[in-house]
Amino acid sequence: MTFLSATLDRVKPSPTIAVSNLAAELKAAGKDVIGLGAGEPDFDTPDNVKAAAVAAIDAGKTKYTAVDGIAELKAAICAKFARENGLTYEPAQVSVGTGGKQILYNALMATLNPGDEVIIPAPYWVSYPDMVLLAGGEPVVVECGIEDAFKMTPEALEAAITPKTKWLIFNSPSNPTGAGYSWDEMKALTEVLMRHPHVWVMTDDMYEHLVYGDFTFCTPAQVEPGLYDRTLTCNGVSKAYAMTGWRIGYAAGPKELIAAMRKIQSQSTSNPCSVSQWAAVEALNGPQDFIEGNKAVFRRRRDLVVEMLNEATGITCPVPDGAFYVYPSIAGCLGKTSAGGVKIGDDEAFAKALLEEKGVAVVFGSAFGLSPNFRVSYATSDEALKEACARIQAFCAELS
């Protein structure tokens, strides 16, 4: 249709949402499908958080709020950053949006001019490049292969920086790989950034609390205080608190940037849901002990999936540090033909044939900018994961 914006030609719909929708449609049609595409915990929101939302409704806290967050939530966010990350912010440095995605989008819209470059390590969350394009910028994708544990090296970061670089988008632990950067690895990257004072850092710390084993989370401004004045530290309640549908994300950074993001939000969505904001206050200020229990479940599922996928012919699956995803390579499957006659030329063909022939929905690696891989979300029941991995093993065993 000719009246649509030419900007739409620069972007594509979210592949992860498309996979989840397709799996749901096939299930509704009566097909036996196991969906491993959804990026959300299968746990329920904690009872104390739900109770806080009900209390807010009963108290009539259902009106418009300040555009970018109630004072109580901003105070809780400041306390969280001080308590958990050693970062000191005041409420004027905090923005609350309708999910983490809006926070990132607002920041890009508020800062990018045509020709500005944004460095994005790949594999990346599917929305990063398209949000940059919508905001008029140019994504600069840096491939971080399995040989580097899906992590960007200081040398690769240095090589990607140009005079046009405006931002580095940094996600640890990563969606889709679960790879996390240690303090020393982060320090090596921040040393590069300190040599380039025109480059700002946008962190996506959404999986901060979902880390396993000896891995310890850290964020760039915490590791290098010299980056504080050009870092937007982004987070939210979606993953750790099982609150994906409540749609609350937040960030802290320089006052001027936060004010610009507030202006964007004031003319788009205005305030996030009032009830969700009060629920988020309780999430951040209330008991945190349930997180350890959830992590233990996720770690068990991670180990199950990694072990079973590594037993599949042609698949190599690294062990992730955090989040609830694995990102196995199918390099050993390429060039083969499935039992249904599909030539496995790339990871998209693999994922489509796997869904059609075995009823397992995964997201193909090219959606995340690095092939030949696919993403599995293990945020579902042990039984579903065992059955799905058994089907993937059978699919690979039948390749010829």
| The CATH superfamily title of the largest domain | Type I PLP-dependent aspartate aminotransferase-like (Major domain)
- What string, H for helix and E for strand, traces the elements in order? HEHHEHEHEHEHEHEEHHHEHEEEH
Q: Structural class, from helix and strand content? A: alpha/beta
Q: Per the principal axes of the C-alpha atoms, what is the gross shape?
A: globular
The separation of the N and C termini measures 44 Å
Q: Approximately what portion of the residues adopt beta-strand conformation?
A: 5-15%
- Oligomer state of the chains in this structure: single chain
Q: How many β-strand runs?
A: 12
Task: Explain the layout of strands and helices.
Layout: H1 15-28, E1 34-35, H2 47-58, H3 71-85, E2 94-97, H4 100-111, E3 117-122, H5 127-134, E4 138-143, H6 154-160, E5 165-171, H7 183-194, E6 200-204, H8 220-223, E7 231-236, E8 249-252, H9 255-266, H10 274-285, H11 290-310, E9 325-326, H12 347-358, E10 360-361, E11 363-364, E12 374-377, H13 382-397
Parallel strand pairs: 1-10, 3-4, 3-5, 5-6, 6-7
Antiparallel strand pairs: 2-8, 7-8, 9-12, 11-12
Helix pairs in contact: 2-10, 3-10, 4-5, 4-9, 11-13
Descriptive labels:
400 residues, alpha/beta, Aspartate Aminotransferase, domain 1, Aspartate Aminotransferase, domain 2, seven-stranded mixed β-sheet, three-stranded antiparallel β-sheet, 12 strands, 39% helix, 12% strand, globular
